[in-house]
Amino acid sequence: MKVLLINGSPNKNGCTYTALHEVETTLNDNGIETELIYLGKQPIPGCIACMNCLSTGHCFHKDIVQDIQMRLDEFDGIIIGSPVYYSAPTGQLVSFLNRLFFSTEKRMAGKVGAAVVSCRRGGASATFEQINQYFTISNMPIVASQYWNSVHGRTPDDVLKDKEGLQTMRTLGKNMAWLLKSIEAGRQNGIEKPVYEPRVRTNFIQ
């Protein structure tokens, strides 16, 4: 079992990384393999609605989004981390997630997901909610913790002083490991993923 952790902060080893690392360490301690990726500081193009991905299964841009789309079957869980930018995830991360999820919705189904947010003071709940929307539209179970998955601080050292936030990260890691193991145990005992009806799409019209 393997979990992908995505650091959506422009600061590679900043507050978001500090929170994600706490989750990652707990997952590893509970026998779950992990991979933490950093999106970097370069711009990530947004979706241009070309629909090419619907026939190929991946975005036409040859970048980190396409790389993860091609490797998606390696991962049983996804944790998305972001700092708060005006009560929202970073624009770079949103572009990444829009393209990642648009063409892979069916392949996301059944993977477990979690959001992790870091902020200096406020905006964490709105950011947390926006990231969770990617999971709830893709048939992905969301892993909870003892509190909303956020840490507070202006610097990584501040985050390390947020004892409740770090404990929330560790609890998240334990809950994700438990859920992944439970899903695998169910699969080994003949409990398969749901078979969904053909998708019905309606428009809101007068």
TrEMBL record:
Taxonomy, superkingdom: Bacteria
Domain NADPH-dependent FMN reductase-like: 1-151
The entry's keywords: Flavoprotein, FMN
InterPro entries in the cross-refs: Flavoprotein-like_sf, FMN_Rdtase-like_dom, ISF_SsuE-like
Listed name of the protein: Flavodoxin family protein
Alphabetical list of Pfam families matching this protein: FMN_red (PF03358)
GO molecular function: oxidoreductase activity
